[in-house]
Design goal:
Elements (H helix, E strand, L loop, with lengths): L2 H5 L2 E2 L11 E6 L4 H4 L3 H11 L4 E6 L13 E5 L6 H10 L15 E5 L1 H5 L10 E3 L3 H14 L5 H8 L5 E2 L4 E5 L6 E6 L22 E2 L8 E5 L1 E2 L9 H4 L5 E2 L2 H12 L5 E5 L9 H8 L8 E4 L9 H9 L4 E7 L3 H6 L6 H13 L4 E8 L6 H17 L4 E8 L17 H13 L4 E4 L2 H10 L20
Bound molecules: iron/sulfur cluster (SF4).
Amino acid sequence: MSTADFAAERLLFTPAVSDPTAVPVIFAFPNTYSVGITSLGYQIVWATLAQRHDLQTSRLFTDAHESLPTQPELVGFSVSWELDYVNILALLEQLQVPLLAAERQAAQPLVFGGGPVLTANPEPFADFFDVILLGEGETLLDQFIDAYQSVRTADRHTQLVRLAQVPGVYVPSLYAVTYVGSDGPVQAIQAIAAVPAQVQKQTYRGDVLSASKVVTEKAAWENIYMVEVVRSCPEMCRFCLASYLTLPFRTASLEGSLMPAIERGLSVTKRLGLLGASVTQHPEFDALLDYLNRPEYDDIRLSLASVRTGTVNQKLAATLVKHDTRSITIAVESGSERLRRIVNKKLQNDEIIAAAVNAKAGGLSAIKLYGMVGIPGEEATDLDETVEMMKTLKKAAPGLRLTLGCSTFVPKAHTPFQWFGVSPEAEKRLKLLQKQLRSRGIDFRPESYSWSVVQALILGAIAAYLNCCCGCVTMASR
Ligand code: SF4
């Protein structure tokens, strides 16, 4: 990748001019530039670091980097997908930093990491990090850097003990973890230095949520400006990390946060993405649609992250159509109401039908549903009900393009379903749905069963991505 790609960036913040004694920092995303720069979390952390005079921050991706310091003092990773894990190790090798924290010497950088994967369960990655930041970065990040500055010249052990005093900072080498047997769960975690016995995940309590700090045509969603409308989800489906990891449900203030952010973003681009695990559950979502329907925004392209099925009405569909989006995505999990009750998904089949009918009446040309197989308690008859539901939808909204995306249930830490395994029946069930649906002209898109197993194995039954883990993260698209 050439530096011209960085040159395509339009920044929505002013980076600081670094002091002569600034700490050299490398802040990495373990995937390509296009993927990394589309991560709102990565953008926010990078902008926070880049706005500090006492840091000299360079970015690193798997296929691109800014000019890197020869002797970084801090190397950070934003980890939002567990299958990027291997890229962390490759980037450390590229930087000639020992992979294991225990093998790093005084002159070598402290390697820190944060993000949903590490917050959900840091333990599978603990050997590779000197420091892991647990929770939301809004206040944690600056406190971590301030603490580092206060011990910058101290020896490594003193540095780590001081950093571990910051709420939310986990220093794995200062805790002894024991397990039940060789393949059992964690038995105990004990501090082995003068550090807090427990590390408290940090939660931000403000009503100003995140918005893009950079817009670029090189992003995976070209030129998109992203605004976080809500954080977490009040529905608490029993498998859903997007809900449980970031509770409580918080909403951005419409006038104090969303409107000014949108105005700022739309001064540099015409593409807006509304993000959050459950954006339509914002209490003023209707007013937000009215705001976006003002004539001065007629030429913007609007994309939504997840939409709760029961909230798909004609006004929402027509607003999307007006703003150049032709399809909407809803997560239904299954066609079986019994199974939805098991997962605590408060959704009836008639609401799914109403969503499809409203989508069509509002002018949308396609609806994509997300489901899962291998949900705990699933029986063969539940799959029949999924097939029936898709057939009913086809009749109820003729002409609307129907797609069912389907993944395999992978258990996530912090959720009530964390101790259930991946069902060995799941692969067979994906094939069965494929046979039944494709023969009826319904577009069925299964996600790889093998990768679901890999996901579960890497994390020891832990997986994470901060948008909705059932798949309703997918942006509504053309
Ligand atoms: S699956 Fe969707 S509706 Fe359920 S808790 Fe997660 S984000 Fe909310």
